[in-house]
Amino acid sequence: IVMTQSPDSLAVSLGERATINCRSSQSLLDRSNSKNYLAWYQQKPGQPPKLLVYWASTREFGVPDRFSGSGSGTDFTLTISSLQAEDVAVYYCQQYYRTIVTFGPGTKVDIK
Amino acid sequence: QVQLVESGGGVVQPGKSLTLSCSASGFAFKSHGMHWVRQAPGKGLEWVAGIWFDGSNTYYADSVKGRFTISRDNSMNTLFLQVDSLRGEDTARYYCARDRATDTGDYYFDSWGQGTQVIVSS
User: What residues have CB less than 8 Å from B6, skipping those under 6 apart?
Assistant: First the structure.
């Protein structure tokens, strides 16, 4: 399954909304359990990735509620509702519908 | 708290082998699937291999299948990655990552180590 993300990078003013899109080459929705097998990660420079969202919209413990995931099937979105300075990072989506998991190429988020 | 510490990286010549280790603590290692994910310099994330909680099943990316072997020792809380026939494109930081779900896992990762650097160069 091939994952794509858009845009490659974006710059947003502090306090403004940032929206990152992720598309999969096939549906990530398992109709038997109504779950979308899609996760989002944040990676800051020099650090390992951090899990933000799984099952497309479930926020990981301790992740600020300004981060939200949405979407279903093949189209997904990560939204940062009010960008903070500490949110500068690269964001990756990842599908786990197949045991051979794949990541998107990443979206770099900066402050405008 | 969960801690994953990788080791074993270094500079190695093409065609040679290396064994990476990941020492786990702070959780029930024997209950979680574990994975290796790599990141080439300045590039994105690439999942490399995964192993079930009991070691009974393993999975590999096509790019490493037949050259890399993932294994685990639950008595020592340690994950391994045997990397053989190394190529220049294997140069990357190799991260050990824990599957958030227990048993066979769901293949998304809630804890990561700091990684170990592998450089393949003559």
Answer: B20, B21, B22, B94, B95, B96, B113, B114, B115, B116
**Averaged confidence pLDDT in chain A:** 97
Q: State how far the Cα of B63 lies from the Cα of B47, in Å rounded to an integer.
A: 10
Q: Which residues pair with A59 in a beta bridge?
A: A53
Instruction: Give the per-residue pLDDT at B90.
Output: 97
Contact A60 B62 (CB under 8 A): no
Q: Could you give the 3-state DSSP secondary structure of residue B20?
A: strand
Q: What is the pLDDT of residue A55?
A: 97
Q: Judge whether A35 is closer than 8 Å to chain B, CB to CB.
A: no
Chain A contact set for B106 (CB, 8 A): 37, 54, 96
Cα–Cα distance measured from residue A24 to residue B87, given in angstroms and rounded to the nearest whole number: 29
Residues 5-34 of A with CB under 8 A from B: none
- Counting Cβ atoms within 10 Å, is residue B115 exposed (0-12), middle (13-18) or buried (19+)? buried
Q: Is the pLDDT of residue B101 over 90?
A: no
Cis peptide before A49 (omega within 30 of 0): no
Token pair recorded at residue B66: 């037949």
Q: Cβ of A102: how many Cβ atoms within 10 Å? A: 19
